[in-house]
Amino acid sequence: MKYLHEYRDPAAARRYAQALARVTTRPWTIMEVCGGQTHSIVRHGVDALLPDQLELVHGPGCPVCVTPIELIDKAIELAERPGVVLCSFGDMLRVPGSKSDLLSAKARGGDVRMVYSPLDALDHARAHRDVEVVFFAVGFETTAPANAMAVYQARAQGIDNFSLLVSHVLVPPAMATILSAPHNRVQGFLAAGHVCTITGYRDYESICRRHAVPIVVTGFEPLDILQGVLMCIKQLERGRAEVENQYTRAVVRDGNRHAQKMIGEVFEVMPRDWRGIGTIAASGFGLRESYAAFDAEKRFGLDCDANGSGRTAGEELCISGLVLQGVRRPVDCTEFGTRCTPEHPLGAPMVSSEGACAAYYCYRRGGRGV
């Protein structure tokens, strides 16, 4: 693919590995936040190139994985209501709720439709005014502008049969929560490059100061990740704790101001429940009161105060919460690859295309090696 091979060059990867071996003098633990980075690391064997004393652990940067069971159940309830069309991205369809998933709801007769954009769902609402169309708005800051734009256009165009079931979460509060946990062992972060294309990285600077950890905004290809790790290790070895930007081809410090303005018009910051982690203050988006008419929870009288920290029967057997916090690896789970597979998942990280368990299942089913 044009312009891609430069970021997957084996010779350059070996040079980064040699540089890491030279500068790493003691054990360090670094967390890559983004599930896309996790898949790249596992697929390309990036971690096998690192010095033995350097460990990469996987973070909660998979929005599908951290969507609480409560909201999965609400989506299923909506999908099974007569006259409601539930639109969702495809990787949400297999995520287990407390008793079922959206794909099973579709098999039972619920109107569940896979879309590629919230604007696809808005188009369906525009063309079918006799049904209620609900878009399951899941994601980090990356997907928030498009979801905000869909609601903004719906109000501007008078499309009153469209609403969002919102499950938006924010990266910096999750990082701060991980660093504050009593079992934390993360000493540096690779921040998600695509999130920072929207938000920039100003918000990460206070985390660096408060917790004395380096944060490197990093891309997703093997050489991006190796360079990001090298930048992070150089800071750790020198006792520095700053934000650096490896992903300069896409990210600037202030981010995308136009996207931020659209987000601020439609959404406000609120507490959010994170599956496997719990409630984190000021860690998500909800619709502003001026857009409350497009809030599916309010429109359909769903219980907005329900506790989303519950577990499915399957999750009692797995360690998905610990995987999402970087405490354990997927292969540490006794159910990995046996009772828990992408076809029959016990926890959300085995379902999503960005889930750590799914990455290990695809590329490391035999164990930790490449």
Number of spatially distinct domains: 2
* Number of E-state strands: 11
> CATH homologous superfamily name of the largest domain?
HypD, alpha/beta domain 2
Task: Give the helices and strands as they follow along the chain.
Answer: HEHEHHEHEHEHEHEHHEHEHEEHHH
What report would you give on this structure?
The structure is a single chain. Helices cover 38% and strands 19% of the residues. It is an alpha/beta fold and 370 residues long. The chain folds into two domains: 134 residues, 3-Layer(aba) Sandwich (Rossmann fold), CATH 3.40.50.11750; 147 residues, Rossmann fold. Helix 7 crosses helix 12. It starts with 9 loop residues before the first helix and ends in a 7-residue tail after the last helix. 52% of the residues are buried.
Summarize this, please?
By secondary structure, the protein is of the alpha/beta class. The chain contains 15 helices and eleven strands. It folds into two domains: 5-64 and 172-245, Rossmann fold; 66-167 and 255-299, Rossmann fold.
Write the layout of secondary structure elements.
Elements: H1 10-23, E1 28-34, H2 35-44, E2 54-61, H3 63-66, H4 69-79, E3 84-88, H5 102-107, E4 112-114, H6 118-127, E5 132-139, H7 144-156, E6 162-169, H8 171-180, E7 188-192, H9 193-199, H10 202-211, E8 215-218, H11 222-238, E9 243-245, H12 257-266, E10 267-274, E11 278-287, H13 296-299, H14 320-324, H15 356-363
Parallel strand pairs: 1-2, 1-7, 3-4, 3-5, 5-6, 7-8, 8-9
Antiparallel strand pairs: 6-11, 10-11
Helix pairs in contact: 1-11, 2-15, 7-12, 8-10
